[in-house]
Design a protein that fits this description.
The chain is an alpha+beta fold. It has 3 helices and 4 strands. A hairpin with a 7-residue loop joins strand 2 and strand 3.
Length: 181
């Protein structure tokens, strides 16, 4: 009887852990419109940024932990810039080019509440002049609680998404404070 019980526990454990982690969803990394102020019509960056490069993300291994991949991070940045009317139409021919490197996503190993801290470097330069308009490393955190998701891998994914959302929101807020080239 104990052998059967041990095998059953082993099978249930394998089913529980196999394929448990999934990538952060880009749609959940886009800041809410209410959290950002509108872009003035005469703002020098309005519809003038094109995103050239996003690096530093990691693919999620379903057997391990949720991660933020380059493609998801890129889509979240593009959609956020588009929503704020900062992205050049078609993401091309803008006066300013943006490069982003996701330098670190610091994740907890275990716990009831998961706080993820993300650090990304944003480099915005004139397309023709090559003048640096913005070059900052931004660090942001988000905590997902047991109440947000009881299942640990889902809670980690929520914390990843929230941290990146906060990071992008902080970046756009800083951009909107710039005065021009």
């Amino acid at each position: 009887m104990t052998k059967i019980l041990h095998k059953l526990i082993l099978i249930l454990s394998i089913c529980f852990f196999v394929g448990c982690a999934s990538s952060a969803r880009y749609t959940m990394m886009i800041p809410d419109g209410e959290t950002l102020k509108p872009v003035p019509d005469n703002f020098f960056l309005k519809n003038e940024i094109f995103l050239t490069e996003v690096t530093g993300g990691e693919e999620t291994n379903p057997m391990w932990t949720s991660e933020v991949d380059n493609e998801g991070f890129r889509k979240a940045i593009e959609e956020s810039l588009r929503y704020q009317q900062l992205l050049a139409p078609g993401n091309s021919n803008g006066k300013y080019r943006l490069r982003v490197n996701l330098e670190e996503v610091d994740q907890p190993s275990f716990g009831l509440n998961f706080t993820v801290t993300s650090t990304a470097n944003y480099l915005l330069q004139g397309n023709k002049s090559k003048n640096t308009i913005f070059d900052k490393k931004i660090t942001s955190s988000h905590t997902a609680t047991f109440g947000d998701a009881a299942y640990g891998p889902n809670r980690l994914k929520l914390a990843n998404e929230g941290s990146i959302k906060e990071n992008i929101k902080n970046f756009i807020s800083m951009l909107l404070q710039l005065k021009g080239e």
